[in-house]
Amino acid sequence: MCIIVQLRNFDKQIDTAMLEVNTFWKKERDTMYKWGKQEAEAKALEEKKAIARNLKNKDIDLKIIAEATGLPIGEIQSL
Predict the structure, then answer these.
(1) pLDDT in tens for each of the 79 residues of the chain?
(2) Are 66 and 73 in contact (CB under 8 A)?
(3) Rounded to an integer, what distance in angstroms lies between the CA atom of residue 56 and that of residue 64?
């Protein structure tokens, strides 16, 4: 269906229809949205831990690492 929309230049009509649907459909209630959000949050946490681990290995003060990453000091110590 997406290909047909693109080939026939229905972008404006689809955008309008989706805005109307948005009045009763909330993406936050969608299961796929929730799964994607959980995956993104887990990835962000792993990236923060990697940054914290690198800073810790460079002997940066744990309080500074905690402030920069938002991770608790106890979690940084365990890295």
Answers:
(1) 555 555 566 677 777 777 777 666 677 777 888 999 999 999 999 999 999 999 999 999 999 999 999 999 999 999 9
(2) yes
(3) 10
Place of tokens 């681990």: 53
Tokens of 36: 């994607």
User: What 3-state DSSP class applies to 71?
Assistant: coil
Q: Is 52 exposed, middle or buried (0-12, 13-18, 19+ CB in 10 A)?
A: buried
Identity of the amino acid at 28: E
Residue 65 CB-density burial (10 A; 0-12 exposed, 13-18 middle, 19+ buried) = buried
Which amino acid, one-letter code, is at 40?
Answer: A
Q: Which two tokens stand for residue 4?
A: 């047909």
Burial class (CB in 10 A: 0-12, 13-18, 19+), 76: buried
How far apart CA 40 and CA 70 sit, in angstroms, is: 16
